[in-house]
Amino acid sequence: MSEVSEVSEAEWAVWRTFYAMRRQLDRALEDQLQRDAGISGPDYEILLSLFESPQRRMRSRDLSARIGWEKSRISHQVTRMENRGLVERSECEDDLRGTWIGLTTEGRRAVLGAMREHTTAIRNLFFDVLTPDELASLRAVSDRVLGAINPPLCDEAS
Amino acid sequence: MSEVSEVSEAEWAVWRTFYAMRRQLDRALEDQLQRDAGISGPDYEILLSLFESPQRRMRSRDLSARIGWEKSRISHQVTRMENRGLVERSECEDDLRGTWIGLTTEGRRAVLGAMREHTTAIRNLFFDVLTPDELASLRAVSDRVLGAINPPLCDEAS
DNA sequence: CACCACTGGTTGATGTGTCAACTATCTAGT
DNA sequence: ACTAGATAGTTGACACATCAACCAGTGGTG
């Protein structure tokens, strides 16, 4: 299953550039959020999910499923955000184990202040510098890499 | 400079896939290092740099320049790794402010145990699923995104 | 009902990353 | 030689991410 697995110098050069791009893109978007709305990337993910939710509130477990974080990460993040007044917790009537996470006025203000500039940043740093062909190529590549990561599971036997 | 900045639904779909790929690729490689050598990604970056250095040791500032981390991050990471016996600090004769970071026997063992499998993982999850054209496209795209992030600086005037 | 596995969520410990403040040394201009 | 400013590195505080342990409520099945 695993061959000799050589990687040429030219391939390493692509890998390093790709790696640098991923790091710097994350950083640039993080900086933009901090600058324009005083929030972090994780803050934004939570706030955006709540904002797009019909009731402006979600169950912790649904946030977890939507964003793809484990439950303890949600809980810690929400605690920090609650302390800053961006969200608020409330009890769940239906299921006494549950917790609602709701957007506060402050949280709503923050996400509204962040969205436009964030979208602009993604457009400027990403979409604007890609040709349609490259965009299609990147989509195909991303799908294939994801496929390689997540168990092809056609043959799990060892 | 900033237009209306709309992003179509198709574009968002590409963005989300690209985003998921970046996260999951990081995670998969991190897991592989942990599994095969009991080290983290940051550990590996330090260890590999030291290993590829002629003397198997580097000045903190050179590590910083090579990996692209700020000095305090290097210092914290080295402290943790020193506690686990992967690296060791020693004084610098030439410059009394300086510190050498050297690979220990344990550190050498760890990096040797990690390298082969890490390379294989990168090949399996990345290079093997890209065509030569896609690789070239990705290289071009990465360069252009990096160019967009780092100040074109041709016209900084406001 | 009684039991038991599961689910929803919190908490604490540890590792990671950033920023600001600090110490110590080096270097250059005078 | 003196001194101002740059450089090298450490430290502490805080935000973030993961893991394991835990508690409480839910929902079967006997």
TrEMBL record, chains A, B:
PROSITE patterns for the chain: HTH_MARR_2 (PS50995)
SUPFAM superfamilies reported in the protein's UniProt record: Winged helix' DNA-binding domain (SSF46785)
Pfam families: MarR
Molecular-function annotations in GO: DNA-binding transcription factor activity
Name of the featured protein: MarR family transcriptional regulator
Native organism: Terrimesophilobacter mesophilus
Superkingdom of the source species: Bacteria
Any Gene Ontology biological process: response to stress
InterPro entries tied to this protein: HTH_MarR-typ (IPR000835), MarR/SlyA-like (IPR039422), WH-like_DNA-bd_sf (IPR036388), WH_DNA-bd_sf (IPR036390)
